[in-house]
Design a protein that fits this description.
Distance between the termini: 45 Å
Helix content: over 70%
Strand content: under 5%
Largest sheet: none
């Protein structure tokens, strides 16, 4: 049962992260997709939900490099 709760929590965090990422943070990670259409961003949602820790790490690393 604990594994199921962990998977649910991981997916909920992934959904919330993908909404924020695809509306605001994608411009930092990939400048080429800043002007992309919503239909393109919808295709990216499943990948963002599953890979949110990697995308978050990349965003934080790029933000840190731009500030220094």
């Amino acid at each position: 049962m604990i594994i199921i709760y962990f998977i649910e929590l991981y997916l909920v965090i992934g959904v919330v992260f993908s909404i924020v990422f695809l509306t605001r943070l994608i411009k930092v990670v990939d400048e080429g997709s800043a002007d992309s259409s919503w239909s393109f961003r919808l295709i990216l949602v499943p990948g963002c939900v599953v890979l949110w820790p990697i995308l978050l790490e990349k965003y934080l690393r790029l933000r840190k490099n731009k500030s220094t």
